[in-house]
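Hey L., structure's done. Input below.
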Amino acid sequence: MKKKQWISILVVAMSLATAWAIRGQFGHEQGAAWAGGIGALALVLASGRKDWYNKAGLIALASAVGWGAGGMISYGMVVGYGRADNFINSYYGLTMLFVIGSLFGLLGGGLVGLTLDSVKNNKVKWGRLIAEMTAGGLISYYFLVEQLGFLMTPPRSEAWAVILGAGLAMLWYMAREKRNSAIRVAVFAALGGGFGFGFGNFLQIVGNVLEIDFNMWNVMEYSIGFFGGTGMAYGVFSSVWPGDDAVPEKWMNRAALFIVVVLIPLIVFRESLRLEHFLSRLGDIPNLAGVAAFSTWFVVALLIVMMVTLLWKLRIPGYKRSDVLWFFFFYFIVYAFVSYAITGLFAGHTSLNHHLYVANIILIYLLLNMKSPAMFEVLTDKLEFKRWLMYLFLIIVFLAILSFIAINIHGEMGGAHDRFPVA
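Output:
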């Protein structure tokens, strides 16, 4: 791998990281789905693979579904365990965040890999895959949670078990179909996302201890996106993929675009951007009702413009790089603007983390214009189990070291929880 290839990986890492940090304003599955779509579009652009431009909408949809599904996992309590002042609970928190982050990356990276590997003469059997993943999720949840009583985040939702089962079913499908490159992407994205979440929690703790005047929760979110995006990009750019110049059928392309460009933003609006959300989030400000109403209508107008513009511009499959570039930045910038709005832009409230989102987007644009090579000179589809186990071991040890450091730099912290009693 050459130095310039790291630029392409950095583009994907920064894109998913920035989008994931923005996601913190919205949360849940829909926010994660929008962020996942942005990360996938960055991947397509950075890859330089012209045959992937036609599939940009489908790849964005796969990433949105994969990364978005993990949004159902509750992790607030787990973050609190990481803030504990004793080793067993702190280490439990960081390792469980590793598990949760890995589940985000497993589905997100895995579905992207399968979409890249699905070509005209060797298509993924999506109906069978979805059925198997659904069954796997249900079986895993009822076996681990209901039968064995294995709880990660009591008393909150244990939906992590659903994602675990779905991810294992996906890997089983990949193995049977011998889709090794897709497995590689799933594994590297899982390792990256898991490391990023655990490490991000440590960074959050350090920032709180040092009383840094910054949104340290956003730092944790940026971390999972950055390392998850790094893993996904590395897995894609180092693996063998079939060529496929076929243009997706119009109905497939339009359905994917409708879900990514219309449905996901509409759900974000319904759950986070309606008038009542602005009224509750803007706080005690002069002319609250007027500012909230203006902010709501601004968001409505912005979303409509985005939807109409992208649906019109991308209505005919057969995309060029300029089409995907337009798709990526319009989709990304609107996401950043609605985040500005919900946090009080029209009330005169802005924060440093939002300005950093803009700085990241500008830097991503500059890096993309460098058109650096992405695909490695030596590509492989080998499954490197020993190497992956070594990475897993090193991460687990590293998180233990971080836990030891964390408990020795702070005492009792706000928001800390103990999962296990300490004498």
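Residues 289 and 311 are 33 Å apart (CA to CA). The mean pLDDT is 94.

-- N.
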